[in-house]
Task: structure prediction
Amino acid sequence: MSGLRFRKIDTGLRKGQENIAFDQAMIDAHKAGEIPDSLRFIHFKPVALVGRHQIVDQEVNRAFCEANGIDIGRRITGGGAIYLDPGQMGWALVCNRKAIADGTLPAITKAICEAAALGLSKLGIKAKFRPRNDIEVGGRKISGTGGFFDGDSLIYQGTVLGTVNPDVMFKALNVPREKLSKQGLQEAALRVTNLREELGYVPDWSQVAEALSEGFAEGLGLSFYEAPVSEAEEKRCRTLYMEEIGTSDFIDEIADERRDKNVRHGLHKSAGGTVRAFVRLEGAQNDRLREVLLTGDFFITPPRIIYDLEASLRRAKVSEIDHVVQQFFEANSIGMVSITPQDFAAAIKQALKD
Result:
């Protein structure tokens, strides 16, 4: 599809969880027909954000964050933990999924990332899409992205690194101690870059937003008009923040089951990300799954489908793990980026080797 008109908004500097609540507010408002297809630009106060399916205490250094005024939050999108502050800018497309590529998550990811890379290149850098969901300059990451759909409503978002303090970023996240050494930080710095390093300065965020808008217009066949944030969005945002997304129950909803000696833990890494499985067994021969918890930095849509997968595995025979997982994916409409049903089954079976 081409020639689609998108509203363009900038929601200003907000706390991390307020921004996440606004993400969900836009999805809900779009599903309800209250807002049109939109492009949003996002600005963050210091925050460490884990992905939708991650465990906070595995990914974030709580003590450092609390001591340095860094908020902790959980995104509604998948992926890994990230640190954000006013040195980075976020963007998000909220629209009908059929407006982008063929409407599947892998195709949407490729199309949007290529358009965002085109936009960043207009600033004078040679950006390009790097599967599974990054944008890089000279082999170094300058933007991470992710998204999902809820029904026909899509949210796909990313960040642009303007300037980064790697010491703060890696201390806010739960990076192994050896990687926080001088050598470790230097090696980590070789994997990421930012606008200041590439251009010698950080452009005004309005310039970056305009460049990205041009990239989305050319790459996706869109046009934009500026409009104010609606009261419906702000009202939904306030309610979501106060009642769900800003609460400790949401932020810490996934517990670290490794503390329970009766829980087995399995880890499986693939091109689609890392999957961790926490498994309790039952039966006289420990031949059935009593409970399974799946976490990691993978992308799956809709995000809550992972809870249905966990439920489908309860009471399943250990010998039937592959069959149950495959049957679940075949019976449901699920979008994934690089991750496969076999990756989830492999993590569960790895836990059984403990």
In short: Residues 257-351 form a domain with the Enolase-like; domain 1 fold (CATH 3.30.390.50). The mean pLDDT is 94. The chain has 13 helices and 16 strands.
